[in-house]
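wait is this the right file?? whatever heres the structure
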């Protein structure tokens, strides 16, 4: 059967492929995500410089980077250990100098621009391993309705241009149990925090992708792709379209938690603004926990509504300048 209202010929019996399985590899560890929206972003614009007159005729092409996010539930395996892909994401978030590798079965790469492609501008795509991904923001949320979820935003690039190590889900993969709110706990030095109804732990890394024109690789002149005009050297295509380095300008930890007020105003646990030394604000989710040794609190907020009173308290984590971003700075695993 052919559908006549489509631009091409489509058969009614389309065969499903592995692309329908929302699986990725994180540093070689396979996991299934709720969504994976990571794609290349290339700065493209038209300029009205004086050389081009009033018409938009000057093409300005800037840097090309990978951006996007993945969302996945936090799971444990049959032994009760945290899924290794989730553990790698948590570790890389609070140590952003260590990049991670993502392998997918749908994110395609192309090293040039459409004008350089002689096959219509949409061919010669490659399924490559995204081998230089830095976590820009990570959010770990826990609530009774949604369970424990992880949302991770990335900035990155392709460095070595190696083929992706994922075509189909591995036959040995066993899907673990998703953590629920009953697997979580909270505490701090001055309170057991038994009336917490949800919490959120965030890690934000401010990433800078410098854009500048690097020199051509003259040593590859003999094997490089030829230029598109007589005035272009044969090695001009080796000027990479992606940044050569990614810089970490700022690292910030924080989050918030919401509590149900059982005694009206609950005057004994309403938080003031400021930091508390050795507070050990701890959020436990299954076999892992996030610990803020010195939290910097904002004033707690209690909106007056016709219902149960909920109090929201936001905080940030204070870290000594001399303390390194070691793998056990924020997240701890058992």
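ok assuming it is, sequence goes like this
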């Amino acid at each position: 059967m052919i559908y006549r209202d489509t631009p091409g010929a489509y058969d009614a019996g389309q065969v499903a492929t592995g692309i329908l399985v929302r699986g990725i590899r994180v540093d070689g560890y396979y996991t299934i995500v709720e969504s994976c929206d990571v794609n290349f972003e290339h700065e493209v614009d038209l300029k009205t410089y004086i050389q081009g007159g009033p018409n938009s005729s000057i093409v300005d092409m800037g840097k090309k980077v990978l951006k996007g996010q993945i969302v996945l539930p936090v799971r444990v395996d049959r032994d009760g250990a945290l899924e290794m892909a989730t553990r790698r994401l948590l570790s890389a978030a609070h140590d952003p100098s260590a990049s991670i590798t993502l392998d997918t079965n749908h994110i395609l790469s192309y090293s040039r621009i459409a004008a350089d492609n002689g096959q219509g501008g949409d061919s010669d795509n490659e399924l490559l391993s995204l081998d230089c991904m830095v976590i820009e923001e990570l959010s770990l949320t826990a609530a009774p309705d949604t369970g424990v979820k992880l949302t991770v935003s990335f900035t990155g690039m392709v460095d070595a241009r190696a083929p992706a190590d994922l075509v189909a889900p591995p036959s040995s993969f066993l899907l673990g149990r998703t953590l629920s709110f009953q697997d979580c706990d909270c505490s701090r030095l001055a309170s057991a925090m038994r009336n917490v109804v949800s919490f959120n732990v965030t890690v934000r890394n401010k990433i800078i992708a410098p854009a500048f024109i690097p020199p051509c690789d003259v040593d590859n002149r003999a094997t490089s792709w030829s230029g598109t005009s007589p005035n272009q050297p044969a090695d001009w295509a080796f000027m990479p379209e992606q940044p050569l380095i990614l810089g970490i300008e700022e690292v910030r930890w924080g989050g918030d938690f919401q509590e149900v007020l059982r005694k009206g105003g609950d005057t004994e646990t309403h938080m003031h603004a400021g930091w508390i030394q050795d507070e050990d604000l701890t959020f436990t989710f299954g076999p892992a926990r996030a610990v803020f040794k010195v939290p910097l609190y904002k004033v707690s907020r209690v909106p007056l509504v016709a219902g149960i009173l909920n109090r929201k308290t936001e905080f940030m984590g204070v870290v000594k300048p001399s303390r390194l971003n070691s793998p056990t700075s924020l997240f701890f695993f058992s």
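Residues 1-6, 215-238 have pLDDT under 50 and may be disordered. so i think its the right one actually
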